[in-house]
Structures are given as C-alpha cells and as structure tokens.
Specification:
This protein has about 250 residues and is an alpha/beta fold. Helix content is about 35%, strand content about 20%.
Length: about 250
C-alpha cells in the first residue's frame, strides 16, 4: 500500500471496518468507500491509500453478507444473487445503506475526525453510497459504475423477481423513487462507463434530471454524470481521480 500511514482495523457496532489516517495535511473529513459486489473491505485498500494521500480520513467496511460477515463463499454468494438479483441484491443494498448512520457515529467517536463525511464506492458500493446519501450528514457522494435505479432497465443481467421482503427493501430505499429523501442536497456524482451494459448510465441520468427539476433546481452544479468513453462495466483510475476531485470540490466546501 502506498500511503504513509498503515491500514488499521476496527469494529464499529459489530461491523468490521478498516481505516487510514490522512498522509498529508491535517485532515478533517472522512471518506467512506465500499467495494463492489462479492468484494471485501480489504479490496478497497488502494482507494483508501489514494483518499488518504489526498488528505482525507478513509474508511471501508464489509457490506451485509460480505467479507467477514459472509456466511458462504464468494462463488456461492455470486451464484445466488445473480440467479435472482431483485430478490437477493435489494436486501444487501438497503440494509447496508441503513448501517451508514451507525458507521458515521462510530467513526467519529473512535477515529476522531472532526469534519464532513463523503460516501462512495464501486458498482454495488456506489449503489449503496447513493442510497446512504439521504443522510443529511453526508456532504458528497461519488458513485462509480453504479446506479440510483435498482430496477436497472436495459441491463444485460436477468433481473429476477423480488419476494415480499425484497420488495419492502426496494420500497423503503430505492433512490430514484425517493427523491424527497435528498432534501439535504448532497453533491452527487456518477462516474459511468459509456459502454456499460450491466449497469447502464441511463439510471444516473434520469436521477440527476429529476433532482435538477426539483430539489436541486437552484444548484444544478451539485449533480453530475461523467461518462467515460469506451469503458464497459469496469472501474478505472480516471473514475477514482474523478471521485477525489469531486470530494475536494464539494465535500470540503
């Protein structure tokens, strides 16, 4: 890992997490960054290094059913969820997003950062970060190859059908159908692959257009969709740099 400070392990209200101190500047603000589907918090180490090098406290935690919280292998998790995305994926998104308030409170107490909170992640992690952005304490969100529309129309992946419990999670947390949850007007940026057929950029575009026509009418610059030419469903260094720039621009204003 390239940062000057070592990754540290912590448990926040029963949730396994890792974090890193800023490696330059005094550092006040916290970035919470989540991995993609089937990933672990440790998989974000390179991104945490980059955020720490940019002057942020940087933290990741294992999403529900992932990493140290898994009850099955990665392969079994992938097979089960991909076999019926709406039934098995929606609960992971909703439950993990609803853990953000506990993580923020615990991080402030245990780590001691004094500034603002930013949220972001890769694919599933970005989906969760957007949903978590409804918490007014989150100043900025950077979601990479992610969507605010959990229905994901146009995706090449078969969506499956939700059961009653999964539908309840969608009805409670899906960002596109809960625009009024963003009254705190966090700055939200989507870094999308132009050729992404797994998580099409269209959901981000519709979400941003709807918010600009409503809650963000007088601050449209706080929303953005960046489409990376020629990129499929793949996280790139350009997306990471875009997230860092977004957090610097809006998270610390």
């Amino acid at each position: 890992m390239g940062g000057d400070r070592a990754i540290q392990r912590i448990t926040i209200d029963g949730i396994p997490a890792i974090w890193q101190e800023p490696s330059e500047g005094p550092g006040r603000d916290l970035v919470v960054w989540l991995p993609g589907f089937s990933g672990r918090k440790e998989d974000t180490a390179a991104q945490l290094d980059a955020f720490a090098a940019a002057g942020f406290y940087a933290l990741s935690f294992d999403p529900v059913q992932h990493g140290e919280r898994a009850t099955e292998t990665r392969e079994a998790l992938a097979a089960r969820v991909v076999g019926n995305i709406r039934r098995h994926f929606w609960p992971i998104l909703a439950l993990t997003a609803e853990e953000f308030p506990r993580v923020i409170d615990g991080a402030r107490e245990r780590i001691g950062f004094e500034g603002k909170v930013m949220a972001g992640g890769i694919s599933m992690g970005g989906d969760i970060a957007v949903a978590a952005g409804a918490d007014a304490r989150i100043a900025a969100v950077a979601a990479c190859i992610a969507t605010p529309d959990w229905l994901r129309p146009g995706s090449h992946e078969p969506p499956g059908e939700p059961d009653e419990a999964a539908q309840t999670y969608y009805d409670r947390r899906d960002p596109l159908t809960h625009l009024t949850n963003y009254g705190g007007r966090p700055a939200i940026c989507f870094q999308c692959g132009e050729l992404d057929t797994q998580v099409p950029p269209d959901g981000a575009l519709r979400f941003v257009a709807a918010l600009r026509g409503g809650l963000y009418a007088d601050c449209p610059e706080r929303l953005a969709v960046v489409k990376h030419p020629g990129v499929p469903h793949r996280f790139t260094d350009g997306m990471l740099q875009g997230a860092i720039q977004w957090f610097r621009q809006f998270g610390t204003e």
